[in-house]
Amino acid sequence: MQQALFETVPAPMPPLPPIQRWWRLQGQARRAGRRVEPLLVTPRFMARIDAGTCPVTRELLRPRSAVVVALRADAAVAAGHLATLGAVAAAAASDAAGGGRWVDAWAVAQRLTAEPTPGTHADMDAAAWRRLAVLRSFVQPLTPAEAGMLPLLALPTNRLRVLSPVQGLQVAATLALRGADRSVRLVQLAALAGTEDTRLAMRVFVLTLVARCPAGLDSMAPAEARQALEDLWTDPLLQRRWQRLALRLSDAEAESLLLRARAARLFGKGWRPLDAGFAVDGWELPAATGSESRHAPRPTPAPFPHHLVGPVLAAGRRRHGADAGVEAAVGR
Fold first, then answer.
1. Count of alpha carbons within 13 Å of 63, Cβ hemisphere only?
2. Across-strand partners of 84?
3. Phi and psi (nearest 5°) for 240?
4. CA proximity to 279, closest of 170, 141, 167
5. Nearest Cα to 173, choosing from 250, 249, 268, 256?
6. Could you report how far apart the first and last alpha carbons of the chain are, in Å?
7. Mean pLDDT in each 10-residue stretch from start to end of the chain (332 residues)?
8. In whole angstroms, what is the distance from residue 232 CA to residue 129 CA?
9. CA dist 211 to 122, 175, 181, 186, 330, Å?
10. Fewer CB within 10 Å, N- or C-terminus of the chain?
11. What count of other Cβ atoms lies within 10 Å of the Cβ of residue 86?
12. In the prediction, which pLDDT does 206 show?
């Protein structure tokens, strides 16, 4: 009786405040010898990129288990390539076998798939390594062929930037499945394609995409809807038809299609175009990838191409290069 009287239930740990998560990120970057971009990476930014579910392992994040990870190992810790992951996924992201490129994580997944019995590496299975590879691919330069090869097994996390216009089209079309008028909007998107051959490939792709839209998508919780949209891309036929379309697009054609679709309000407000220089501003990329930076010399003063990012940070406090990721477009 006395034992029952004095027995207490441990109080749940409160979530880590954004300012403490910001200090933790500063400490991690300092130990790794990396600089943190000071203009956009703020405690408020840390609150914006917070997540309740790990996008890689899909585990629920406990109050203090979330880790902010820089998806590009060759860049400064800056807005645009930071994501909130679980502890397991964060450790795997820094694993030597996983490397710093999306192709390294994809190779780990392929090796695990080829094993006689399904295995794990760094406590993650092949599906989780593929999702990590796709997350990394968003913030790395891709050719249209590479963008066509990658299934969209992970959607961009909040405030993550997508540098490839072709991959940006893949993301935007998938997110356009939200809403009762999805079929109308996606058919209108196909009509915007430049050539007849591209319009036909686009029409076949969007019809395949709409046909595989999960039942009750609009009534799902944000995390459930996100996973349902990602799981669409395990369908081999959908991936083949996306690859057929991607191989018919150049970056310029995909960018033009995205901008015309945005002007026609076919994709909603989950993203906005950003000049390529601003998309990687503050990343301090090495000279080998200097063409991604707005500080690199350019042969002509033509406007920078646009890339897929999210909407502005706030209506009253505009910042160049500020972006909010596509989680808002899936119901967050």
1. 8
2. 68
3. -65, -40
4. 141
5. 268
6. 47
7. 46 70 92 92 94 95 88 93 95 78 94 90 95 96 95 95 95 92 92 91 96 93 95 97 96 92 81 78 72 40 39 32 36 40
8. 17
9. 36, 14, 13, 12, 18
10. N
11. 24
12. 95
Question: For position 137, what pLDDT does the model report?
Answer: 97
Contact 83, 55 (CB under 8 A): yes
Q: Whole-prediction pTM value?
A: 0.82
Helix ranges, the chain (H) = 2-6, 18-31, 43-48, 87-93, 102-114, 126-138, 144-149, 165-175, 182-191, 196-211, 222-231, 236-246, 251-263, 276-279
10 Å CB burial of residue 187 (0-12, 13-18, 19+) is middle
Find tokens 């880790």 and name the residue. Answer: 67
Please give the structure tokens belonging to residue 245: 């379309």
The pLDDT value recorded for residue 276 is: 72
What is 221-270 written as a DSSP string? -HHHHHHHHHHGGG-HHHHHHHHHHHTT--HHHHHHHHHHHHHTT-STTS
Collect all residues with Cβ–Cβ distance below 8 Å to 297 and sequence separation of at least 6.
none
Whole-number Å distance between alpha carbons of 310 and 162:
9
Report the C-alpha gap between 49 and 327 in whole angstroms. Answer: 10
At residue 6, the pLDDT reads 45
Q: d(Cα 51, Cα 47) in Å, to the nearest integer?
A: 9
